[in-house]
Amino acid sequence: MNLDVPSGRRKTIKFRTRNFSIEDDKYWIQPSRCTSVDMSSREIINKLNEMEQEEKLFITYDVIERNPKFATVGGSIFEFINNTMQPILKCHLSQVKDTNMLHLIASSFFKRSDLHEIWAKCEYPIFAGLLVVYVSEKMRKLFSGQHEPVIAEAFEKIQNSFDDECTALLDQCFHTSERDTRAVLDTNYHLFIHTDGCPSVEEDMEVMALASAAKAKNFLSHPACQREIDFRWQPGFKLGQMAFFLFFFFPPLFFLRGKQRIKKREIKTMMLKMDHSGNMTSITYSNFLIRVYNFYTSPNAKYVIHTLFRLIYVIFYAYVLMTMTRKTMVMNELDEFLDEMAIIVWQCAYLTEMAVLVYQRGFYNWAERNTADLYRNYLVAMTMIAWSVAVIAPPTWPIRAFAIISADLFFYFSFVFATLRLMKIANVDAFFGSIVLMIKKMIPIMVKFMFVFMVFWFTYAVCHISLAGHLKSTPNITDVVWPWLIFSSGAFEIFGEADEEDKLGTVSKCSSAPLNWDVITDSSVQCWFKTSMIPVFLFCYMLVSSVLLVNLVTALLSKKYEDIDKVSHIYWKYKLYSRLIEYEEKLWIPAPLSLLFYILKTFCFFLSKIPIIGVIPNYFMKILHIFEGKVYAKERRKNRKYEAVMNGLISNPNRWDGPTEDEKKSVELVREQMSILEADRKRKRLETDLIRTRFEEIMSEIENTNRFRRIRSQTTF
User: Fold this and answer.
1) pLDDT digits 0-9 by tens, 91-134
2) What's the number of CA atoms in the CB half-sphere (13 Å) around residue 188?
3) pLDDT-based confidence at residue 170 (cuts at 50, 70, 90)
4) Coil vs helix vs strand at 393
5) Rounded to a whole number, what is the largest CA-CA distance in the chain?
6) What is the dihedral angle through the alpha carbons of 322, 327, 331, 334, rounded to the nearest 10 degrees?
7) What is the C-alpha separation between 155 and 464, in angstroms, rounded?
8) I want to staple 386 with a disulfide (CB 3.0 to 4.6 A). Which of 1, 367, 406, 547 is the partner?
9) CA–CA dist 57, 420 (Å, integer)
10) What whole-number distance in Å separates Cα of residue 32 and Cα of residue 13?
11) What is the pLDDT of residue 517?
């Protein structure tokens, strides 16, 4: 179900097709007509009916659409909640075995006031609390799109509150045991929350992935999460980013600096080997060479490789633009722009990477995480389309000339976007990452404020062209077209650069001499009027644009800067997890070599389907699989199976599908710390109630004493 509310007329809900009224009890409690709804789902639907009857949230604000499967509003809300939670839970709500978690999820959609009391009863507090943050983020975004700021602020308040609560719970675990806290962040809760027989137990999701989807910024900014992110970003040795670049390109530095002077890192068991007797043992990372190998296979190393090729791409792109001399595109003369074709091939590699990732994750999931790459690929696609039309179309077609102009325009825009994308490289540094964040947040203000500038700009440009007579004085209209006149009239005056002719009021076919009152003619009066009004219009325009509008937008940007500067470090730390996931799952081979990789893989895939000849291509595909990115959660799950084999828990890793002992201990640790926090919260609440009660008693005594004194003073007189 599409959760986005389109602009324009709001949707109209159609629940009253069976002549029910909102005040009618049947409208809320009539059972579902769909026979596929089980008893557990009916209980949830009845609970949702009760909540909606109290809150009137989904009906009043047209959040949902009618679902013919259900006869009540609760059934449609139930379907809406299922669709919203599907990317996280990966199952139907009836397949979640913790009833308190179900109650918490349902209550969070209605922004109930008893969320904290329900949360304290959940079996898996840290996962349940982040689910509330996720629901609040989705509902906040939904009501913001419907222009309901009051409700959106209420959900944002719940989101921030539970983000802080989950962060406090993580902090409590972190100070109790750092090692167990790392296991908490590594726990796959899909092994715990589902009912028996649910296929979703095969899904993999770590806690930080849920926090990232919920935009729990404080949670991901906690030192426990930051250590885990840094641990996975650069295992083996702990080096700064600039030092990592030097060590990556100059391996002898490992030996020149000495083994003992480099800070080592104990990293997790991710590799296994089999001895001569057939037993599996883990490879320890105490060996220096293995640490170096881990250094060169880290996500940070992949980041260095892709960054290097991106810099080469921008430099080569700039060289192509500066040396481009062709004025047309002819099919038989393609050798004149082979360098441009090289850029097009490089851009085809980016499009191929996008197509593969969209096929693996879905378009909306990929676009949400890679919005900038989506816009870049839009420009690349438009460039390729215009370029193809310009080459294929016959010279007699008028569309060919416009296709050449469009191809060049998109080609330049692609270069501008490629250079701006280089700022993403600076996100690895805290200082430059904060600057990039501020620019990103300020750009929407500039874009919106540009409309205000354009209103005054267009008004002045039309008046100036009319008074100065530029359009009429042009001998051929094709020499200076009117859009360029509108742009040039008033563009640079915004920055205080006025033309001398405009200051003097120069008008074509009019002299600059003052008006002769002895000989007054129609033409002399009109020339005097135009030459006088041009400086007046220029003064008013520069007063409004240079003084008022520029200072106003400067004040808005200054306020935005102050607001962002307070949380920029938190937002930068929050984005580190997205960067980590991006480069963990990224292909090792960068563009344009990735295009050859995918072509070779596709060729081997089809050859592997041939019964006899397909053995060699199938083996070659396994070699190519080494260069593909890995999903951390799935890799950890696979290695936990082998760890269970080594510990003697099971004999076959393919039969293992349950949580490990570390995961069970981490869940118990969170429960214990949640009990401690809840007991402390109750104690503080009790103390607050006692203080409030005592304060009310004291105020009551003071009031009674003052009343007695007033009565006594009145009786005395």
Assistant:
1) 888 888 888 898 999 999 998 888 988 998 898 999 999 999 99
2) 22
3) very high
4) coil
5) 120
6) -20
7) 51
8) 406
9) 43
10) 18
11) 64
401 torsion bin: left (phi>0), alpha (psi -120 to 50), beta (else): alpha
507: tokens are: 């008008």
Residue with tokens 């750009």: 443
Residue spans of alpha helices (H) in 146-206: 149-176, 178-186, 190-193
Nearest one of 92, 167, 174 to 129, comparing CA atoms: 167
Return the structure tokens found at 110.
Answer: 């209605």
Give the count of alpha carbons within 13 A of 676, CB side only.
13
Spatial CA neighbour of 235 closest among 281, 268, 284: 268
Residue 706: pLDDT band (50, 70, 90) is low
Q: Which two tokens stand for residue 533?
A: 């009004």
Per DSSP, 546 falls in state I
Dihedral of CA atoms 383, 385, 391, 395 in degrees, nearest 10, equals -110
Q: Residue type at 96?
A: V
Pairing of the two strands 280-282 and 272-274: antiparallel
Q: In this structure, what DSSP letter does residue 545 have?
A: I
What pLDDT digit, counting tens, does each position of 206-239 carry? 899 999 999 999 999 999 999 889 888 888 677 7
How would you classify residue 65: left for phi > 0, otherwise alpha for psi between -120 and 50, otherwise beta?
A: beta
Residues whose CB is less than 8 angstroms from the CB of residue 18 and which lie 6 or more positions away in sequence, other chains included: 71
**Cα 528 from Cα 515, distance rounded (Å):** 6
Q: Tell me the pLDDT of the chain averaged across its residues.
A: 78
Q: Give the mean model confidence (pLDDT) for residues 272-291.
A: 53
In three-state form (DSSP H/G/I as H, E/B as E, the rest C), the secondary structure along 138-151 is HHHHHHHHCCCHHH
Nearest to 357 by CA among 84, 632, 628: 628
Instruction: Give me the DSSP letters along 72-103.
Output: SHHHHHHHHHHHHHHHHH-S-GGGB--HHHHH
Helices (H) and strands (E) in the chain, counts: 30, 2
Which string of DSSP letters, residue by residue, matches 447-509? HHHHHHHHHHHHHHHHHHHHHHTHHHH-SSTTTS-HHHHHHHTTTGGGGT---HHHHHT--TT
Q: Which of 59-73, 297-311, 463-477 has maximum average pLDDT?
A: 297-311
Helix (H, G, I), strand (E, B) or coil at 647: coil
Report how far residue 656's alpha carbon sits from residue 201's, in angstroms, rounded to the nearest whole number: 12
pTM: 0.79
Confidence of residue 633 (pLDDT cuts 50, 70, 90): low
pLDDT score at 512: 59
d(CA 645, CA 640) in angstroms, rounded, equals 9
Q: Read off the amino acid at residue 601.
A: K
**Which has more pLDDT, 481 or 457?**
457
| DSSP assignment letter at 61 | T
The Cα 486–Cα 463 span in angstroms is: 10
For 194, which DSSP code? Answer: B
Contact 101, 131 (CB under 8 A): yes
CB 265 within 8 A of CB 324: no
Element (H, E) at 274: strand 272-274
Mean pLDDT across 479-502: 74
Hey, what are 461's tokens? 């440009």
Residue 327: pLDDT band with limits 50, 70, 90: low
Lowest average pLDDT, out of 32-36, 202-206, 213-217, 416-420, goes to: 32-36
